[in-house]
């Protein structure tokens, strides 16, 4: 697949991914040597879903999570800033309420809360600034990002008075089979300086690297005396989350 240069992660760049790949999908081949690094996020998410739970998904892409989970909760609303992806999500997840938005400016009527759970799978961290107006009492925020550290997440949470309840860092061995795959991954990760690693470290099976994820679970920072009987009970933090060959820290 030959693509004309576009600014990575621009609206136009994502729109082309939607057209070329049929959704928000990584445009490179990879082979994992362990479990998918997003299983930690999945386990935390599933533990918090159920009838009556009101969910807002930030950056829904072509709607895989909405398609999987929307029919089993009280409400699943979602948004994406890319019209092509939002249209695909509507087709893929008929039980969800999908909107075009970038988490900036006025909240569209269809996305107004309150929500019990706000989630973002590698989506925009700008939604954190809107948590006070979107979240119900006792709500939680669950995020997974594409690196071991996404420093703007805890910083933005603190700025709106939310506290990090748990952090997990997951790193799984992986490899890309071709130089073209490695170049596409470096573009996606905005790491062009890593392209020459192929020439130094690639072998017959490709180039080994690490697929990394940073998972955060947060809630509004309130004292125990301020939590009234209407606060929704929270799912417990897991004592062990499947993560394969991983480096994980609870912070």
Features:
251 residues, alpha/beta, disordered C terminus
Model description:
The chain has 251 residues and is of the alpha/beta class. The chain is built from 8 helices and 8 strands. The protein has helices at residues 11-21, 39-46, 64-69, 83-92, 131-134, 152-159, 179-188, 197-201; strands at 31-32, 54-58, 75-80, 97-100, 115-121, 135-145, 162-176, 207-220. It has an 8-stranded mixed beta sheet with strand order 1-7-8-6-5-2-3-4. The model is unreliable at 240-251 (pLDDT under 50).
List the helices and strands and how they pair.
Elements: H1 11-21, E1 31-32, H2 39-46, E2 54-58, H3 64-69, E3 75-80, H4 83-92, E4 97-100, E5 115-121, H5 131-134, E6 135-145, H6 152-159, E7 162-176, H7 179-188, H8 197-201, E8 207-220
Parallel strand pairs: 2-3, 2-5, 3-4, 5-6
Antiparallel strand pairs: 1-7, 6-8, 7-8
Helix pairs in contact: 1-4
Give me the number of helical elements.
8
Show unreliable segments.
Answer: 240-251
Q: Please compute the radius of gyration using only Cα atoms.
A: 19 Å
* Mean pLDDT over the residues: 89
Head-to-tail CA distance between termini: 41 Å
Beta strands, count: 8
Main sheet record? 8 strands, mixed
Helix content: 10-25%
Strand order of the largest sheet: 1-7-8-6-5-2-3-4
Structural class by sheet pairing and helices: alpha/beta
Strand content: 25-35%
- The shape is globular
The SSE string, one letter per element, is HEHEHEHEEHEHEHHE
